[in-house]
Amino acid sequence: MGMARRKTKRAIPNHLAARLERCRARMADGRLSAYVVSAPTDQFYLAGFTGEDGVVVVTARRLYLVTDGRFTIQAAREAPWAKAIIRKAGIGAELSRLQLRHRWCRVGFQAEHATVKQAAIWRKAVSPARLTQSKPITAELRNRKDPAEVVAIRRAIDVAEAAFKVTCRTVKIGMTERQVAARLEFEMQKRGASGPSFPTIVAVGSNAALPHARPGSRRIASGSAILIDWGATVDGYRSDLTRVVFVRTIRPQFRRMYIMVHEAQRRAIAAVSSGVEARMVDRAARSYLASVGYGKAFTHSTGHGLGLDVHEGPSLARRGSATLEAGMVVTVEPGVYVPGVGGVRIEDDILVTGSGCEVLSTLSTNLDDMVIRG
Amino acid sequence: MGMARRKTKRAIPNHLAARLERCRARMADGRLSAYVVSAPTDQFYLAGFTGEDGVVVVTARRLYLVTDGRFTIQAAREAPWAKAIIRKAGIGAELSRLQLRHRWCRVGFQAEHATVKQAAIWRKAVSPARLTQSKPITAELRNRKDPAEVVAIRRAIDVAEAAFKVTCRTVKIGMTERQVAARLEFEMQKRGASGPSFPTIVAVGSNAALPHARPGSRRIASGSAILIDWGATVDGYRSDLTRVVFVRTIRPQFRRMYIMVHEAQRRAIAAVSSGVEARMVDRAARSYLASVGYGKAFTHSTGHGLGLDVHEGPSLARRGSATLEAGMVVTVEPGVYVPGVGGVRIEDDILVTGSGCEVLSTLSTNLDDMVIRG
């Protein structure tokens, strides 16, 4: 009483504190004095910061945020628990200064993110400490989502699904792929997405034979099969879904493709459970599609992890060596592609649980529900 | 006559042939047997391919495109002049195979793009050839735009400007930043943009004191100053513009900020000409803003090159050492930011010419034209 108290710095939220604790335990395993985090999504994961062009530096006791003048206020708002260093020159110069102060021995960095050019500068900057490729610490931490992350992914799915339903009602014969994609992205943003998870794919007819087609000027006609692969980014977390819709009628060839892919997806999802090797999920879809003559038409992996990045661990690929664990969120998205004809892919987002899995996405995949009026 | 001719492979277009020729000349200067191009925009620049997750390999006589099964058809469509290699495993395995066939000596790669992890794999793959950091060959080529590129950038500007005009008419009191950003991106896509050049910034009031603010849930009110930084991507090329609009009235503090930034921009643009050092353009804006008391409020560089990437060379920064050349396209975008109050930035896209420059963007920057109804 009587004495003015200075405002105390905002305490670090529990979920970030828990992540940093796990990060520091792994740093200790690797005998790292410091860990230079350059991947933006990892910076958000560990420190809550969404700026660009900087790095987060984690040490046993401190958390630094090296950024530039464009992000001074943003750093104070988003990550007041980090010591912000507003750099005047390069990141290297600031790492040098920190090295002088702390006398680090081994400094870890993200070899899967940092460029050769950056690493060369940082290597000199932290000398005589050794700059060393650490194991992918944050990637491993991020594979299993904490409950708040699953909630965020669910929100990203909700937004994507609601936007899809509205967009399907606005699709009319004569619209271009690009117009449909624009509408879908607009509807997601109206519902709170900061943007799409990745460039939205809307591919009509034979364009859908390109698994990563860009929406162009091809127009929708009666009888068109339209492959739509889209997702929303909400508070940093991403959803990733694919549906194929048919305008008024379904051509027999597509009907057959759809039924086969649908069954492949069902089998792959049924294979998802904690303790299962990722490649077994891929095999469930792939061996089925091969058995019905679509082996060579399935040109990609069955799925991938999903979270702050649209592609993260684990990979549900032919050689996917990870073992699924409860809390992982993955896509399951088999597809078949026939050049000159088109493609069918069905993709949902799945939470691995102790006893199996939960399909987080809720849009129907039944063939009969895939017909739109146009 | 009488004999069926096989369709000949599509010839490489002149603009790509010219770029490859210049690239190969630089490879020869650096005694490179091959050049591994991993940056996606550079792959598009040299080969016309827009896929992901692969590399383009340029040799003295050949052009390879290493990609995966998702892009088989796209590679044939977009870059039939390149020899497509559909990889089953990693890029490294394919580089190994090429090395066995061609017996390269020195293989250049993009140290400013390739990650440390990729480079380590490629280094082993091309052994006994040496993997070597080349000078940034494509970045240097790309600094000066050829006429077709300037046409493409103009289109990207047209789309962004038309969308902006329409969006300003739809802005209403009570709308959120995010709603305005969503509308602007939608209007760009409707006009042929494949997407925004970068995440659109719409910042109301004090949020505009963050030069890279994300649009959020803050609502527009009478008297709001709204900073909008946006651009369109059209056929791969990008525009980048900023305007500040005022809802119904302009508060005196903003009026003063605007007038100063406007004059700073005028001076910087007047300084743009071929033969001028980039830092002189920065100095023109910076010294003026310092003279009127906004030296510390101008927290970033004056501009940057623009093309297939939203940030490329040359940098119009305090220490920008490049010399401007005819054909370069740069942004000129001074700004001042006052914490708690807001910010003003005015940004146009400028073509450097032999005798000075041409402002490619056409939206008014006059303060009186910046008032909207809301």
The total count of strands of chain A amounts to 20
Poorly predicted runs of chain A? 1-8
CATH architecture of the largest domain in chain A: Alpha-Beta Complex
Helical content of chain A stands at: 25-40%
* Mean pLDDT, all residues of chain A: 94
The biggest chain-chain interface is: A-B, 44 and 44 residues
The separation of the N and C termini of chain A measures 71 Å
Name the shape of chain A in a single word: elongated
Indicate the multimeric state.
homodimer
CATH topology of the largest domain in chain A: Creatine Amidinohydrolase
Write down the CATH class of the largest domain in chain A. Alpha Beta
The name of the CATH superfamily of the largest domain in chain A reads Creatinase/methionine aminopeptidase superfamily
Structural class, from helix and strand content of chain A? Answer: alpha+beta
Biggest beta sheet summary of chain A:
6 strands, mixed
* Total helical segments of chain A: 10
Residue share in β-strands of chain A? 15-25%
